[in-house]
């Protein structure tokens, strides 16, 4: 695993005094996972790289993450990582998996998760 020092990749960037309150999320996949393409995405405003674990191996995603790190290093632009896992989707009226317990979640239900026993 690469050890990236934040100070080593941050560069002084032009600042007009505004703070960004939005995120631009781009899925990094076959057409967008090369270092040159990720550099273009970063320069265009991407600040969250999404990894879709429904497709590809762990090695594939590790290589993409390494490419993202290299692109951040070369551009000096930081980017968060979002992982979209293979687990069940949690939408209303669909069962979701919590440990080994299936729970039915419906519209306007309150759901609370903690590390204690159920």
Q: How can the largest sheet be summarized?
A: 3 strands, parallel
The multimeric state of the shown protein is single chain
| Topology, number of strands | 5
Mean pLDDT: 78
What class do helices, strands and sheet pairing give? alpha/beta
Strand order of the largest sheet: 1-2-3
In total, how many domains does the architecture comprise?
2
Tell me the overall shape: extended
N-to-C SSE string, H for helix and E for strand: HEHEHEEE
Terminal Cα span: 36 Å
C-alpha Rg, in Å? Answer: 18 Å
Q: Fraction of residues in helices?
A: 25-40%
Number of helices: 3
Content of β-strand: 15-25%
Outline the low-pLDDT stretches.
90-99
Task: Give an overview of the whole structure.
The protein is α/β, with parallel strands linked by helices and 118 residues long. The chain has two domains: 22-86; 88-118, no CATH class. 27% of the residues lie in helices and 19% in strands. The chain has three helices and five strands; from the N terminus they run H-E-H-E-H-E-E-E. Strands 1-2-3 form a three-stranded parallel beta sheet, with no helix packed on it. The chain has a two-stranded antiparallel sheet with strand order 4-5. Helix 3 links the parallel strand 2 and strand 3. Helix 2 (35-44) packs across helix 3 (58-75). It is extended and about 45 Å long. The model is unreliable at 90-99 (pLDDT under 50).
């Amino acid at each position: 695993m690469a050890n990236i020092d934040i100070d080593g990749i941050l560069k002084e960037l032009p600042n007009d005094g505004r703070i960004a309150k939005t995120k631009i999320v781009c899925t990094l996949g076959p057409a967008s996972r090369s270092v040159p393409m990720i550099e273009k995405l970063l320069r265009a405003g991407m600040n969250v790289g999404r990894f879709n674990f429904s497709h590809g191996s762990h090695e594939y995603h590790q290589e993409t993450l390494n490419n993202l790190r290299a692109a951040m290093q070369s551009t000096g632009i930081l980017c968060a990582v979002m992982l979209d896992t293979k687990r069940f989707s949690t939408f209303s009226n669909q069962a979701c998996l919590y440990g080994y317990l299936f729970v039915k979640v419906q519209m306007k239900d309150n759901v609370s998760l903690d590390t204690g026993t159920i």
